[in-house]
Amino acid sequence: MSILACPKCHEPLEIEGKTCKCINNHCYDIARQGYMNLLLNPDKASNNPGDSKESLIARKAYLDKGYYDPILFEVVNEIKKKEGPLNILDLGCGEGYYTYRMKQILGDENTYCGLDISKLAVRMATQYDKSIHWIVGNSKNIPVLRSFYGCYYRNVHCSESGRTC
């Protein structure tokens, strides 16, 4: 079963070797690290959207110390209340810490997908676990089939333009 949707036409993407293709012949390469880049140029504000390499490395080091694990455990406890197997989508997965840790705790019966706008972040995420579907994409144009959604998680702690999100 395909879980990915073409970001142009939203038809299912099927894997054919090292590429994915929809019925309208939109084609996307699978990076050698195992992720899919489904971010369209109109969906990004700069050539390299997302956090800097330094920021990602610092965040990974901080998260690896477990400071945010109480948040992780609360999310996992909520997910455990649902009947499985589940399709779990982590929007804004960053360097993949939460997605990977959820899989460690919840196990392999679920399907896991991590999406982030930063190619560098997703490339880092692939180092955790290649069986997770890692995608470069925009959460405003999610390249995942609607039928995939069983449970999605978005860990947002930011403040933009005086707005807390």
- Low-confidence parts lasting 5 or more residues at pLDDT below 50? 156-165
Q: How many beta-strand segments?
A: 10
- Strand line-up in the sheet with most strands: 4-7-6-5-8
List the total number of helices: 4
Rg is: 16 Å
What class would the helix/strand composition place it in?
Answer: alpha/beta
Output mean pLDDT.
86
Question: If you had to describe this structure to a student in words, what would you say it looks like?
Answer:
With 165 residues, this protein is an alpha/beta fold. It has helices at 53-64, 69-80, 97-106, 119-125, and strands at 14-16, 19-21, 27-29, 36-37, 87-91, 111-116, 133-136, 151-154, 159-160, 163-164. The strands form 3 sheets. A 5-stranded parallel β-sheet has the order 4-7-6-5-8, covered by helices on one side. A 3-stranded antiparallel β-sheet has the order 1-2-3, with no helix packed on it. Strands 9-10 form a two-stranded antiparallel sheet. α4 (119-125) links the parallel β6 and β7 (133-136).
Summary of the model, kept short:
By secondary structure, the chain is an alpha/beta fold. The protein contains four helices and ten strands; from the N terminus they run ββββααβαβαββββ.
